[in-house]
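lol so apparently i was supposed to do this last week
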Amino acid sequence: INLRTVYAFAREMYPKNSSTPVQYGTAGFRGRAEFLDSVMYRMGVLATLRSRIRGGAVIGVMVTASHNPEPDNGVKLIDPKGEMLEASWESIATDLANVEDSELEAHVAKIISDNKIDVGSSSNVFVGMDNRYHSPRLLKAVADGVIALKGNVREFGIVTTPMLHFFVVAANTRGAYGQPTEEGYYRKLITAFETLRGDKLENGNYRNKLIFDGANGVGARKMLQFLKRMHNSLQVEVINKGDGKINENCGADHVKVKQAVPIGMPIVEPYTRCVSVDGDADRVVYFFTDDAGHFRLLDGDRIATLVADYLMDMLKRCDLDLSMGLVQTAYANGGSTDYIANTLKVPVACVPTGVKHLHHKALQYDIGVYFEANGHGTIIFSDNAKCLIKAQSETNPNAKILLQIIDLINETVGDAISDMLLVETILNSKGWDVKDWLATYDDLPNLQLKIKVQDRNVITTTDAERVCVTPVGLQEAIDKVVSNYKRGRAFVRPSGTEDVVRVYAEAATKDETESLAYEVGNLVH
Ligand code: 16G
Ligand code: ZN
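anyway here it is w/ zinc ion bound
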């Protein structure tokens, strides 16, 4: 390998055009697309080196800015087991993205020698992108980074983030997880879903019909592909298919944060199940309008509790004694946490924001259910759990069902469509509609604020972001305010994806929640 090529490519095609430092954050690099070409190219380089360090295992690179507005784009790396890039490599990624073009050659050489990378060994990188108009250009930059270091690159074109995770794991497990192709992905999920559903398309209060808000993103396209291949097992009306701007007034983030229906909603009967995903389809929330015309949200906490309840029941029916735990973040509604601890009686853990933290904690259980309130999450089963369930399925029909449930779940990362098919399966099996689901517990009113400050990093936190360490005195002031509110809870944390500080508040009533949020917000200014 001639590292001069790495520099030559960079200088000719992907020169660094911004002096503002960038940081590999909660979900990789994000920002305005016009400043990302050099970052993408360098991440192609980095993925190639990372694959070599991991003995040639496939590394994924996804070009997307998820729920961000259309002018933004971003990139995240996927490790061989489908997990987010190992934390210790985040700083390597940050440093590489920030060096000047003239230092690039020497910097790459240093990464190679520091990590004792055999540059002659094989390297394999999968790349995918969302449907933003600048994604193809940026994807080419990633691919060129791989080529510059003589790695093998396989381009999957427009795919959801969870599909790319699926392909990476499928390839690295040599097909044991599924085939690393788009058809392989559809086949695995649809087969499991339709086997579970059988010919019982409706049951009790459950109706086989829903509205799907695709956020004008990849999720819309892929849902349509699912429907083409399904045998009418689910009737889905897809809205925000891609004619409008990605995530604009639609999608899971809009619905969750604004607590309002997306643009483009058809007129439907009250209590019609509606689903929103985000721009790269790794988040999902449900919502509906009741007969008084009120918007009602069923968010990630609801999905987690529904799934945990169902799995607990299945384990009993399978006569299996496996440990199960539920992982949340500080954004989980206090109502859900109480319900999990007191009614479901499932151990519940709280970790910092970001899928990698939730995933990591969930690995500690035989069955780990993790969801962020924003709808990002999945369920993971340990090898031990899978073995025991498989053995039990020889004699126990419920264990057979559980095996199909495992196939339906994309364990590699939160997958909006897979999560949705799971929720549909559970609601159908319980004979529930959204009203029954919402009745399981009451959410506390809650509110989030964004506050612009000079330097958001002066705020540091501990205890899963629930307690501020700096600036000194801030936490005491928050505690004092919170103590005046019935069922009050509030925290502040610097965002990992935007240049703002976020405030979260919940309390017994809507008015109190608003006043608590603004009081805490004022402490931050
Ligand atoms: C990223 C995270 C998401 C988290 C969000 C918080 C991943 C793949 N994505 O989108 O899980 O909820 O950041 O954003 O980890 P914030 O730090 O701006 O509040
Ligand atoms: Zn996303």
